[in-house]
Amino acid sequence: LGTCFGASLNPSDMGMLLLQVSCLCGSAPCLLCGCCPSAKNSTISRLLFTFFLFLGTLVSIIMIIPGVEKELHKLPGFCEGSGSVLGVQTHVDCGSFLGHKAVYRMGFAMAAFFFLFAMIMVCVRSSKDPRAAVQNGFWFFKFLVLVGITVGAFYIPDGAFTSVWFYFGVVGSFLFILIQLVLLIDFAHSWSQLWLRNAGESNAKGWYAALCVITFIFYATSIAAIVLLYVYYTKPEGCTEGKVLISINLILCLIVSAVSILPKIQDAQPHSGLLQASLITLYTVYVTWSALANVPTQTCNPTLLVRNSTGSATATQLLTTWWDAPSIVGLIIFILCTLFISVRSSDHPQVNKLMLTEESTAGVGSEAAAMENGLHHAYDNEQDGVSYNYTFFHLCLLLAALYIMMTLTNWYRPDESLRVLTSPWTAVWVKICSSWAGLLLYLWTLVAPLVLPDRDFS
Predict the structure, then answer these.
(1) Whether the model pTM is above 0.85
(2) What pLDDT is stored for residue 19 in this prediction?
């Protein structure tokens, strides 16, 4: 068979085949086709690792689809033959928690994969380090490692795994929400500076009009959302927690909006304004909505999903799908943030220091040479120093994997009887605290130049 196959290929075809096979074991430059523009080796590597994360997310989404979830019991060793399901003996319907269990296993596999590479890449300073070749190449073998860890994760005994891994997911999700907030604040400042610079250079009033329109849309959406939160997640009598949380975040949003346009703040930061404050307000309202969607009281949370051990729901607690609106919005934000981490560094040095990213000028000559020769490939821009911290990047993807694991399962966990998946108050307070941390962080970006006048916050 091998002889016939070899005979059917001419030497040029055989050479092309060998080249493609070698690319699976080589570095990122091989993975760009001729029609692709030249790109930095560091950017291609980040995008490929992000692709692995998205691939694992897609598998998790498929596994939690009700029709697919019912078939997971056919996986060998996953349900049949196991001693228990989430700590419950096998007389309990094995199909009730399989989607939840599968997403946790997939989340563990992705987290373990990125943790492994985070440890391997500690203190890599440039592409001259032999470990940089592992970071930027051997993609086929990396995929095999991820598949192997995933298969092994599905053989983890139930026991206390779900309960323990839930708290890992909570901590990781909280940290990833903070990363989202840093990126959002940076994006808001960059957006405002870009439009104001365009307005100043072109002397066109249209840029100022666009700023006003976008700001108005953000604030109008936030006000409408807050009204809906009061209508659907509070009652005239009771639901005190919801009323307090919504009111506190509303007051905090008003405070940061007012501070952003104070004369002293404007003098210290001419580019600060209501556009950034409106975007932060909108995101805070979303996080508040997401937190209220996890309130475990049915009367105060009309979107509460409760699933019992028989896979059905009670008459007053109908369950149609794991997907609710906050989860869908959270998934979209997750995708945007991970892509943001992968493809760009910040325009602000302070954010680059915080996120451990800094665009290197190394490789510029390689890019120019590639363009002159008409070649389209990834060029090494890290010979003199890495453009991002490899370990920190993998830790960010690890936290992203934990965040998407919690998002896909709505932050639910088995109750004390291990017969019902319910929403704990832990999820509510983690999300609310993350919203407060984000508002405080944004407030600090406004007042820092006044508090520390000797430091450069340009």
Answers:
(1) no
(2) 43
